[in-house]
Structure formats: structure tokens, C-alpha cells
Amino acid sequence: MNFSFFIARRIRKNAIGSFSAAVSQIGVWSIALGIAVGIVSVSVLLGFKQNIQKKVFQFGAHIQVEKLTLSQSVEEMPISKQGAFQQKWPSNPRIKHVQCVAHKAGILKTADEQKGAVLKGIGQDFDWEVIKENIIGGNRIDFADSLYSKDLIISKKMASQLRLKLGDSVIMYFIQNPPRPRKLRIAGIYETGFAEIDDGLVLGDIRLIQRLNGWQADTVGAVEVYLNNYLELNQTAEEINAALPPELTARKITEKYPFNQLLDWLKILDKNTAVLLSLILFVASFNIVSVLLVLIMERTPMIGLLKTLGNNNQQIRRIFVFLGLDIISKGLLLGNLLGLGLCAVQKYAQLIPLDPSAYYINTVPIEFNWLFILLINLVAVALITAVLLVPTYIISKIQPIEALNFKK
Questions:
Q1: pLDDT tens, 236-289?
Q2: By Cβ atoms counted within 10 A, which residue in 53, 153, 273, 356 is the most buried?
Q3: Please, are residues 152 and 145 in contact by the beta-carbon 8 Å criterion?
Q4: Tens digits of residue pLDDT in 124-143
């Protein structure tokens, strides 16, 4: 057995109940708390980013292909869904899903209330999985009617303002000359937490808009493109624009909706989390240095005896490195159990609520990313182990005669 490891193990066994044992426990828990806070911080940050990005792209795709126009109107100019884009880009590996939509402004009117809204017309190619989590009541739009579906999905906020519930009828006056009213039925209710969406977007059958606008069945207002990876948004939008005919353009969602401030806020969270993790690791490193210094001071007579018996500084230093590694391993184990345990409880029990009006979600989100968690552990081990070597250099300065006469 390795001599240094043998001595370190004997010290651990004999230190039970001593002052150094209490100090070692403080070192273990300081590392454990640092790792736990790091895991919780990263998991919450990633949870926020994933949930908010998902909400941003639920009712507006990453990229929208539409006709190039100087008009600021909500409604689009008609384009053919059988065009070059539909034939080429859906097979691109960066693209997850493509669907056709159209928008038309109008006014929802009940007996007592009225509210402006934009009808987003969707068809059977619509990906319901994207907004499944936001549908809080009712069903999907039923496209069985051969003419067009009269089903309408509105936000919870609009339903409250108009005093509507599932199954109620509402008249929607579409803004054109002359205005054309249509009686529709509330089939579903959604909620995103984004005022930009919840204040005035409703979902309906695209065939209704095509009929109102006098369009053919293969004519739509825009083509929505969903990507597999949001980070490829700019690159993909540039490539699509380069391939489109002059009359069409690909607009990113960050240009269409005012979400830039929200995405910038997420970037600030990244920086704050990095600063927090750095401070935590610094404190943990400082604590382990303090613990080792206490252990060295308490074992000064032993160090003198070992030197007298012919052991060199390197062998003695390894003893205290092994003691430090023991503290680190226990701290990592406890920290991971504590951090992952707290995250698991929040993820599945959702004990900590949030105000959706301020944070866009109703509970603290958790997203496990094992690569980041492994990285936190590796960085902690590398940094603390490197710092661990600093106090052991004191051993080389200890003289055997002075050490044997050392009084604690």
C-alpha cells in the first residue's frame, strides 16, 4: 500500500471527535453547498431559457416567409404555397417543420363587450404539439367542415375581458370594405403569459381568411418555418433570403415581435450565473486551504517525526493532498445529492411559484443538462485540487527539531 495514503487513512480514523475533524466537516459542507448552489443555478437558468424561448416561438415561428411589402398592415399579401420555397426548404436538416398561415384583423363583439383581435388562420399542417402546453381548456380546431371551421381559440385574457367561456358564440367583424361579420364558436382557450400575444391573437381556420379575401385554396399569407436549433436562426434566415425570389422575404421572429429585450435579459442571466459560480468556487477553494492549514498545524509534531525517520517533503505533502482529496470527494458527493435532489423536487412537485405577469411562467423552471453539471464538477475538482497544493508547501519549511518541540 502507498505509504502516504496509509498515513492519511490513519489520520482520518484517529481524527474523529477532534478539532480538525470539525474543521474538515466545515470544508466538506462548504464544497457541498458550492456545488449544490452551482447545480441549482445552472438548472434554473437553463429552465428559464428553454421555457421562455419555447413560449416565444409557440405562436410565432422562428422564420416567416412572406411577400415583400412596405405596408405595416397585419395582413399579408397573398403568396402561393406551391412556390419554390415549399419545394426546396422543408428537406433542409436545420428545419423542423413548415406550415402555411394567414392573418386578418377584426373585432370580437359580444352583447356587452368588444375587443380588437388578429385572426391567425391555420390549416391541417399546423403543428399542435408546439402549443399543446398553452391550451388550458377546450379542444383543437375541427377541420371536418368542407367549407371552413367556425371554431376559434382565444386567450384566457380575452375570454375574461369578453366574458366568454368554452362553447359560447362570438361575432367577429373583419376589417375590410364593407366589414364582414362571421359568427364563430369558442372551441379552446390558451395562455402564454406574453401580453404581445395574449392581448389580441386568436386562432381559426385559414380557409375562412381565404374565403374573405377571395383567395384560392393554394394561396396563403405566409409560410412559417420552425428550426431544430434557435442558435441557427440568423444563418438560416440569411440562406433562405438568398434563395428566395425578389418578391419574397424571410423575417426572423425577433424582427416581427418585440422579444429582443427578453432575449437580452437571458444573456444577462448567463453573465450573472457565471459570476455567482466563480464566487462560490473561490469561497470553496479558500475554505479548503484554511482546513488544510489547520490540519498541518495540528500535525506539526507528526511531520517532524516523519522527517526524522527519513521521509522527504514530497511524501509528507502527499499525505495532506490525500486528506484534501477526501474532503473534496465527500463535498462533491453531498453537493450533487443536495443540488440534484432540490432540482428534482422543484421540477416534479413545483413547490416554488412565480408571478406569470413578471416572469412569463407560473413556477420556477428546472432543466437538467448533464454536460453542464459534469462541467461544474470537473471545474470544481480542478480548481480546488490546484489550490490544495498551496498550503502543503509550508511542510518544506518545517524543521524536524522545531516541529517535535511544537506545542498546539
A1: 888 888 888 888 888 888 776 655 666 667 677 777 777 877 777 777 777 777
A2: 153
A3: no
A4: 989 888 888 888 898 899 99
3-state secondary structure the chain: CCHHHHHHHHHHHHCCCCHHHHHHHHHHHHHHHHHHHHHHHHHHHHHHHHHHHHHHCCCCCCEEEEECCCCCCCCCCCEECCCHHHHHHHHCCCEEEEEEEEEEEEEEECCCCEEEEEEEEECCCCCHHHCHHHEEEECCCCCCCCCCCCEEEEEHHHHHHHCCCCCCEEEEEECCCCCEEEEEEEEEEECCCCHHHHCCEEEEEHHHHHHHHCCCCCEECEEEEEECCHHHHHHHHHHHHHHCCCCEEEEEHHHHCCCHHHHHHHHHHHHHHHHHHHHHHHHHHHHHHHHHHHHHHHCHHHHHHHHHCCCCHHHHHHHHHHHHHHHHHHHHHHHHHHHHHHHHHHHHHCCCECCHHHHCCCECCCCCCHHHHHHHHHHHHHHHHHHHHHHHHHHHHCCHHHHHCCCC
The phi and psi torsions of 5 (rounded to 5 degrees) equal -65, -40
What is the predicted pLDDT for the residue at 12? 64
